[in-house]
């Protein structure tokens, strides 16, 4: 039986998620929430759904049993809290919460609702090609360092240049280059290497105090991971994990489309598989399994939750290092 899915947020990523959810055969979209009814109706019509809500309480009592949240980062906390209080499973887009204080409050609420599962939608770490990277890293004799790059011109940057303050480039919405794009390579680094011993962030500020791009350095015992990301330009650099003579080259750390291993500096071995048509399919299948079989997947679920909380802490530490404060930090 398919999970009754509700969605919050009506942008392109939500459409991609619903398409993946339907393709998996394990979800059926039954309710749409939007602050604006006309926007919600337009999205709902795409999937032949009649139930559109502008009131969150009515949405959460509509009969859904899992919600996908892709609203601005700053409102995730209240929306997730309300869902858990209604015993509804939650899949929330990155970055899940503004700071560790919010995350701690959500974990406490989850303790009171043990049947509810919370997932952060870090789709790239669930994809087959990322699993290939994990397996190869585990076999590499020595890790000497890594450089991850994810720099992509935002569709909203023209709006910013015109003098406006779009949500994805605003501290008011707990957003900026780090929490919107940097979260992808940071997730990858922590999944591959664990929590760093130290972290530093050299941010390039926008006029509103948010970060438009930056370079983060995660320090481990005997190597560093350098992470470059930004929303105001495009980079075509690959990402690399360095061994001794061997090197693992990743075409795109967020999309994980191409993975090549050089065993001696010159001989290339193509490791990547042909990716699925929708990059979210792997995660929706994984999440459905964990919701359907909670006892059998409890260890794997706790690992995902711990990873998500660690990423949240590192993002916060990096912001503190760069002096970037969100309004949510002061509440």
TrEMBL record:
UniProt GO MF annotations: nucleotide binding
Annotated Gfo/Idh/MocA-like oxidoreductase N-terminal domain residues: 4-113
Pfam family, one: GFO_IDH_MocA
Protein name: Oxidoreductase, NAD-binding domain protein
